[in-house]
Design brief:
Elements (H helix, E strand, L loop, with lengths): L2 H14 L2 H8 L3 H15 L4 E3 L4 E3 L1 H25 L7 E7 L1 H18 L3 E7 L13 E6 L7 E8 L1 E5 L1 H7 L13 E4 L6 E6 L2 E6 L2 E5 L2 H9 L4 E5 H9 L4 E3 L8 E7 L7 H13 L6
Parallel strand pairs: 3-4, 3-5, 8-11, 8-12
Antiparallel strand pairs: 1-2, 5-14, 6-14, 7-12, 7-13, 9-10
Helix pairs in contact: 1-2, 1-3, 1-4, 2-3
Length: 296
């Protein structure tokens, strides 16, 4: 059996912890996934995975094999990309990650436009709120929203990230419109489960306010909070890249428009400049150009 394919199958099983999930992702039968892993174990003469009815875990040999397999697959991918660069078309596969809200609102459309320009290229987008180790997950480019990006990574700013407080007209008609930051303490607020859950910071000129808000509904993802705000669930803190269409059509209204929320930025992050492939460089340049004039 193809040993490179066996390595890819093994890496996917190790990362997902599931033979079935790997079979679905790689579009092969579960029996074939089992055969590839078995062939790799036979070739190496070591058990790589401990299998139970509930979980799949790595053995010590499996931990070592996982690192080496990831390195080997990355090397093969780099060779393919560098070889194909001698032609006019970009080839291979890129793996990128970003938040679910940014993927939904902006990045999916940008990727579709980029792929239309490079039809022989493939892109795998991991839309996730969790922090991924870019090297271990073999991520080529991460789009992250932060005030201070990870100093261990190379970062290039794509756009500012402005946030606003929003609510539906129906909610404001029923509960009243806050006139001062302190008024938020008496409103139903929709908050983030993973940061800034109970304290919102606002600024107007030299004035600063910190409001401890009462959270009746929290979530770990911006799109869920936006949907709750659209349904009249309360006041939500939203990035304008996500909320702007609903502000434009009147389904949401800005609350406390004279007060600003802390500035953040949207960064493209990657592990190293040294081995930046032509395809990653092309995508990075495309995103920088696309977001040079922020559409939101």
């Amino acid at each position: 059996m193809d040993r490179l394919t066996a390595m890819q199958v093994f890496v996917d099983v190790a990362q997902s912890g599931s033979f079935s999930a790997t079979a679905d992702k790689l579009d092969m039968s579960r029996a074939m996934v089992t055969r590839y892993v078995g062939a790799l174990e036979q070739w190496l003469g070591a058990r790589l995975l401990q299998r139970t009815t509930r979980s799949v875990t790595l053995t010590d040999a499996g931990e070592s094999c996982l690192r080496r397999s990831q390195q080997m697959l990355a090397l093969v991918e780099n060779v393919e990309e560098e070889t194909s660069h001698h032609g006019s078309a970009l080839r291979g596969q890129l793996r990128i990650t970003c938040s679910m809200s940014f993927a939904y609102a902006q990045l999916a459309a940008a990727v579709a436009e980029f792929l239309a320009q490079h039809p022989q290229l493939k892109i795998d987008l991991n839309a996730s709120e969790g922090a991924l180790n870019l090297v271990e997950a073999r991520i080529d480019l991460a789009i992250r929203i932060s005030a201070e990006p990870d100093p261990a990574l190379i970062g290039r700013m794509l756009a500012p990230c402005t946030s606003v407080l929003v609510a539906s007209p129906a909610y404001l008609a029923q509960h009243g419109t806050p006139q001062l930051p302190a008024d938020l303490a008496t409103h139903r607020c929709l908050t983030y489960a993973n940061f800034g859950k109970s304290v919102w910071k606002l600024q107007r000129g030299d004035e600063h306010a910190e409001v401890r808000v009462g959270s009746h509904f929290s979530a770990n993802e911006a799109t869920a909070l936006m949907c709750a705000a659209l349904a009249g669930g309360g006041v939500a803190l939203q990035p304008t890249y996500l909320a702007s269409p609903h502000l434009a059509d009147g389904r949401l209204q800005v609350v406390l428009p004279d007060w600003a929320l802390p500035d953040m930025a949207i960064y493209a992050l990657y592990p190293s400049r040294k081995h930046l492939s032509p395809a990653v460089r092309a995508l990075l340049d495309f995103l920088v150009a696309r977001f040079a004039t922020v559409p939101w």
